[in-house]
């Protein structure tokens, strides 16, 4: 929506706005607990770090500037440019005082026994931020503790700043000067880990300032992004966090004075507010388009100060390139959701195949299609490109490009006991295996996928992927073949058929790793991940995250004999055992075993043997004395019900069926929701008798009642959830569950309940209208958190988590910044669930009248 103006006119208008602005803005503390004026919100710890991943760039003092969150992390910090795993303070005593118009809170660094207070209160056209100390900065932190605030680089690229009137340009790429300091000066990082590979030199990097002064004006040329910061009796410095980490931001900072108490620092912060600013409406629709016979409803998202228009229109683009209005319809007020008002525009009546766009006032959308086959290819990029790119232990090629080499051939070592790791892994007092700490576990350099934007093997998400792919194979017989897979030579070629269905080859690839876990470890593991934090944040070819040579303790670090290496970089196996992971892996392998029978008989047999072993070792055994270590596996589930079901379908042994039937009805009586609820019960219908289906219908009705509320909760009618991670997975499983209900009881739920979930994923969702599946739809996620995110690009077919809720009322999915995993990180289980949903959608649209 950026207008193209000549520079002169642009600057003239900008100056006018800035001059006119001085009476417009007065920030007020609103009922939601943040400072607000039209165009500017200042959040003061409305959001806090969740702890699991430390600095997620989503907490502290934050600015939502003309509808975009541009600033975060305002807090007392201990470095010039804190990284993700640098310490974050805990918040105590947050108080919102309407009487004095002030938000105040305490911040504690427990490791340093360092407490500070912050208060924020409006003044003139901005706020005053004060840092108050009861006790001076601890000696160890003198010159290190400071007040920082961070600005997202993508909002300031191609723009300028003035520091005390001296001009500078925000760098597109980091190249400021840095210095080295001895390790003894370094402030602690998460759990004693280090993000920096100092190659044994006991030193660390300190980024230097881009500019220093008393007053900084950020982006004076751009009223949308202009921010003024004045330090009162202190020096300001501007830093570029990307010197240390690609996900770093621009940071403005003042060091706290040593040996002082009371109000030790004050800043005046003034984000410019454009008078009477209103956010441009966002017209939301499926970027893939619509089947002629489905409901077609666009949602229009409006600023709360915007006046709704009565009408919207649908235009068709003719072969001559002309635009013809096909329908002018009412823009019906839906109401308020989060911070915006919503309208709905229904153009269901237009059924003629063609190219269309929506017009609302002066705004026109990009084009989309109406056609009987709009969904037919929507899952191809996910199966053809995204899943092959995620394949571990293989070289993956596509045309002229090699995505990565054959990685982690040095897998893997037993993780040591009593160890706090990162990314949610830890080991308790036992290995749960026959292996000693750091001992090599053989046979693991095979199969598996990079779990997400990082490169670890997560057993739980592998189970989900196998379930999704087996379901896809069995329900839809998807024989698409666009991938060449040569396991013997560890080579994968994209867009190259090899006569074998890709779904089976992917099932094989996942089963290879899970079977290897059970055969070599004795049971499935929590996961397999690099030992060092300075390896974990790897961006680049996964082949180079380790040296691919097995660790040899007889060599010195960085020394190699050509066959082994003295560098301890081989991945560690977190061998925590839990009944939940044992059984959910057994379920996935029992299912995989069926599909692999004709494709890879040997692996099929081993998968079934592994599944039966896990069943025998877990079922009817006393519960373990201690709860499972390591926080359990992601997506693991803990029920024996799916295992009983899969073993029954695969072996036809009636004892498993009986066990399933013993478990399913009490489970449904407890709840129809969740993994052990209506979804598994519905999937089971083909394997049970007619009475089962009759009895199940009352539970399906209960499920239908349970989802009725979504239509009132939000204008999209789907479950929008967000707890540190976007909720697209939930929307996809909602749509898949609805598909099974529709197939079994078409009188209960219509096909539209499947399609509305799909349309949400494909662009009809809050904040923007981009398809959440990269390269699917006219406009889609082109800047996402794949393992190539440092290049601000995408992996075709990857599905992102979607919208993250910033409390109290701001949903966000950024498209110019790839480093928010909660918004933009492709994950293998979501992506394969999307493959199933796409095929389900193609199945239901066939019957639409
Ligand atoms: Ca991971
Ligand atoms: Ca193939
Ligand atoms: Ca190695």
Topology:
Blueprint: H1 7-21, E1 28-29, E2 35-37, E3 40-44, E4 61-65, E5 68-77, E6 90-97, E7 102-109, E8 114-123, E9 126-133, E10 146-151, H2 153-156, E11 160-163, E12 166-169, E13 178-182, E14 203-207, E15 211-213, E16 215-218, E17 227-232, E18 236-240, E19 250-255, E20 262-271, E21 282-284, E22 297-302, E23 311-317, E24 323-337, E25 340-346, E26 354-360, E27 363-364, E28 368-370, H3 380-389, E29 395-398, E30 401-404, E31 413-414, E32 419-420, E33 426-427, E34 457-458, H4 459-476, E35 483-486, E36 491-494, H5 502-521, E37 527-529, H6 533-536, E38 572-574, H7 579-596, H8 601-618, H9 641-651, H10 654-670, H11 678-683, H12 690-707, H13 710-713, H14 728-744, H15 752-761, E39 804-806, E40 810-812, H16 821-824, H17 828-845
Parallel strand pairs: 29-36, 31-38
Antiparallel strand pairs: 1-2, 2-3, 3-4, 4-5, 5-10, 6-7, 7-8, 8-9, 9-20, 10-19, 11-12, 11-16, 13-14, 15-18, 16-17, 17-20, 18-19, 21-22, 22-25, 23-24, 23-26, 24-25, 26-27, 26-28, 29-30, 32-33, 34-37, 35-36, 37-38, 39-40
Helix pairs in contact: 3-17, 4-5, 4-7, 4-17, 5-7, 5-8, 7-8, 7-9, 8-9, 9-10, 14-15, 14-17
Bound molecules: calcium ion (3 copies).
Molecular structure report:
This protein has about 850 residues and is of the alpha+beta class. The protein is about 25% helix and about 25% strand. It has 17 helices and 40 strands. A nine-stranded antiparallel β-sheet has the order 1-2-3-4-5-10-19-18-15. A nine-stranded antiparallel β-sheet has the order 6-7-8-9-20-17-16-11-12, with no helix packed on it. α4 packs parallel to α7. The two termini are about 40 Å apart. The N terminus is likely disordered. Bound molecules: calcium ion (3 copies). The site of one calcium ion has 7 residues, from α5. One calcium ion (CA) binds next to loops.
